[in-house]
Amino acid sequence: MSSPCICTTLRSASRRMAAFYDEAIAPVGVNIAQFSLMRTIARSAPVTLTELGRLTELDRSTIGRNVRVLEKLKLVALGRGRDQREATVSLSDAGRKVLEDGAPLWDAAQKALHDRLGAEAMRNLRAALDSL
Questions:
Q1: Is the per-residue pLDDT at 97 higher than 80?
Q2: Which of 34, 60, 124, 128 is the most buried (most CB within 10 A)?
Q3: Is 19 helix (H, G, I), strand (E, B) or coil?
């Protein structure tokens, strides 16, 4: 191998980034993956699990497991879709409160990252990641 593996480097950076955001939003009791999923649910609710998987680019079984965790935490509620075979998910009042309380924590993490990397690096990073 003649050069460092981009995939390995990106996976390592992704773990560090997730840990950074996890620490930032820890006071609201969820991790960044859960917070992000809840934000997607809030924007689209009620949303079927299949559509939620499409929106988050995760497979249906992964979405089902992740939503069940949020349901056990009483942060989301499951319902029935137009087709009785499909479940829908919406935020509970407690879930909306987590997003409300977590938003300033997430904003502060975003700002800290922006301050650390600078505006140009942030734009370049976003552009590079969006192109994948």
A1: yes
A2: 34
A3: helix
Contacts for 56 with CB less than 8 Å, ≥ 6 apart:
36, 37, 40, 63
Longest CA span, the chain? 54
**What 3-state class would DSSP assign to 59?**
coil
Per-residue pLDDT tens over the stretch 62-82: 999 999 999 999 999 999 877
Q: What is the Cα–Cα distance from 111 to 79, expressed in whole angstroms?
A: 36
Q: And the tokens for 79? A: 């319902």
* Token representation of residue 76: 């989301």
Instruction: Please provide the DSSP assignment of the chain as one string.
Output: --S--HHHHHHHHHHHHHHHHHHHHGGGT--HHHHHHHHHHHHH-SEEHHHHHHHHT--HHHHHHHHHHHHHTTSEEEEE-SSTTSEEEEE-HHHHHHHHHHHHHHHHHHHHHHHHH-HHHHHHHHHHHHT-
The label of the residue with tokens 């919406």 reads 90
